Amino acid sequence: MNAIPAMPADFSDLKAVYFNGTLKKSPETSNTQGLIEVSRRIMEKHGVTTRVIRTVDHDIASGVYPDMREHGWRTDEWPELYPAVRDADIVVVAGPIWLGDNSSQTKKLIERLYAHSGELNGKGQWAFYPKVGGCLITGNEDGIKHCAMNVLYSLQHIGFTIPPQADAGWIGAVGPGPSYLDEGSGGPESDFTNRNTTFMTWNLLHLARMLKDAGGIPAYGNLPDAWKAGTRFDFENPEYR
């Protein structure tokens, strides 16, 4: 059996934000929050600054622009929440399964993240380079993998980097039944869920550390303004040979 390697790095300069897509307003118990805490505790043991945002507690407008008050909405708290994403190294999207899919709050969050996907970082890359993304899913019906596929695809599409096994979740038996934090559910004791949540958390930490130490993703071949100006980064169109 291989020896357990020593912990490779200091993570105390990293920041992580968790978005809880529960439909329950605070202070009502959120099963998704219960699973978030498993991951969050690991990060905080190693000095990572964490924050959890329960989106349903905030007046976040629907839409795909950074500030929907400029597009007909009277109020929108997203501009006040977005700095938590902007300053984070790790973003974890968490939420429950409803009707086999992500909750409306999770979907709204993805749309509001997408609103910033056309912005640029200091290197001239898309704004979410080189942030690391992951997801946590809870429910008492099938659908963890479906929901995770949607979240992780969306995050990588707008510029997040996704590590190996970047998702974890818990579901009870199919049909009405106990939720993750309910007495006797078996959720907090699930070795499978605890293992996957732990592995996800460490993979997020390792990749965030690697990217931060490397100064992010190299800025060659992925600069929108350079492409617009005519730089083609070794692309050749066969029709013009």
Cα separation of the termini: 56 Å
Radius of gyration: 19 Å
Helices and strands, in order, run as EHEHEEHEHEHH
Shape: globular
Taking the sheet with the most strands, its summary is: 6 strands, mixed
Number of strands: 6
The residue fraction in helices comes out at 25-40%
Percent of residues in beta strands: 5-15%
Q: Roughly what is the average pLDDT, rounded to an integer? A: 94
Number of distinct helices: 6
List unreliable stretches of 5+ residues: none
What structural class results from the helix and strand content? alpha/beta
Domain NADPH-dependent FMN reductase-like: 15-165
InterPro entries: Flavoprotein-like_sf (IPR029039), FMN_Rdtase-like_dom (IPR005025)
Protein name: Multimeric flavodoxin WrbA
Organism: Arthrobacter ginsengisoli
3D architecture notes:
With 241 residues, this protein is of the alpha/beta class. The protein is 32% helix and 15% strand. The protein has helices spanning 31-45, 78-86, 104-114, 144-157, 191-213, 224-228, and strands at 15-20, 49-54, 90-98, 101-102, 132-139, 167-171. Strands 1, 2, 3, 4, 5 and 6 form a 6-stranded mixed sheet that branches. Strand 3 and strand 4 form a beta hairpin. It is globular. The model has no long low-confidence stretch (mean pLDDT 94). Residues 15-165 form the NADPH-dependent FMN reductase-like domain. InterPro entries: Flavoprotein-like_sf (IPR029039), FMN_Rdtase-like_dom (IPR005025). It comes from Arthrobacter ginsengisoli.
